[in-house]
What does this fold into?
Amino acid sequence: MSELSVNHLLGIKHLTAEDIQLILDTATQFKEVINRPIKKVPTLRDITIANLFFENSTRTRLSFELAEKRLSADVVNFSAASSSVKKGETLVDTVNNILSMKVDMVVMRHPNPGAGEFLSQHVDASIVNAGDGAHEHPTQALLDAFSIREAIGTLEGTKVAIVGDIVHSRVALSNVLLLKKMGAEVMVCGPTTLVPKYMHTLGVRVEHNLQTAIEWCDVANMLRVQHERQDIKYFPSIAEYRAQYGLTMEHLDALEKPIVVMHPGPINRGVEITSEVADSEHAIILDQVQNGVAVRMAVLYLLAEKRKLSKG
Amino acid sequence: MSKREIIDARELNIALNRLCCKLIENHGDFSDSILIGLQPRGAKVLERIVGLLESDYQVKNIRTGLLDITFFRDDFRRRSGHLQPNKTRIDHLVEDQKVVFIDDVLYTGRSVRAAMDAILSYGRPAKMELLTLIDRRFSRDLPIQPDYKGRQVDSIASQRVEVLWEDVDGRDAVLITEPTS
It folds into this structure.
């Protein structure tokens, strides 16, 4: 196998099927590493990584930080709340200041779509997009794909339903792009107000009935309703959303074949899925979290590999 | 590119048998020993040695593992191309056990250095030993020597030493490959 075709991970859009395969295969080896008695390897000991979070995040930031530390990289953390961004500094200035401290890679979450792409054109560091607005969240899609492959055995031909708030979800877009590239069948399901009109142009089925979706799929990826991104009311009430799109044990028990239930977290228990479903054997939510560290280690390893040391 | 056979199937078989006998001399019933094949090519040597120990020497219950050293290499970002990691399988605790690393060709010794580092992720072995089918003499970059060697080979840096296996390549043999100038 050859190296990644890209120097940055800005979105699934830029990856080839071979790149995705390479990342998932490499993550398999890293999953073994993080289950060893000593979970650290020295591979990135000469790499410094800055985690720049211009938007709140708990699990993604923790997952990246752990992945970086397991690879022995030096890590600096930066969050917008406590920074000069508040004082009016531009993104390029902020990042160039950090890079002048000899940082090799930047993991960035930013509220503006395309922020990572913009940065990659202006600074000399490998950029990993950890979520840019409602645009893409490539490592989440990669860890979801890894988890599906682990649970089902393959992505090709697997039927995946992505249910919930599609329009505000960067997870949904990255998942759709990745699953299509890897030959899976994809359906999005949600209220008409929360499913973007362009969805069918991506080659996915659009469904508005949860029952139909779960009867069709092998895997249901239940997305969180993103109240914080909703400027207007997209559905009448939480109770109505729960009644129409909340996944319950009754749904799962009535199915002819068992399905795998995923959720990128954080869960609104009792809204998109009930506590019972989240804690059931159908759910692989905590596996997703563990796989997240392995997949991020693979991404960092493969991007670092492309930054060859110059001799002399 | 010219290829020259330096060891044939019969000689290879004698070497493997001799290695088994030496292992038995030092490890007895192997009750506190673990044989670890270094990925990727040490796996095949491990398979043959364990097969012989079980069938011809009646040693049973040999504990084995496979170790990939990719993430412990010292040439990451220093060589062109991709370093592909392989599967690691260590199902036994190595703490206080005698570990024998098994590989096909010992050349610079850098892989073995990485293996010594990598195995410590699974505990502190009582002892580490090295078995290699082929020892390329006078080519070490590090102060590492094998405890068990099948055959010593004199070669120069531009040559490649390649081990063939019957079930993979159609015959057992060791070849020296030389680039034609």
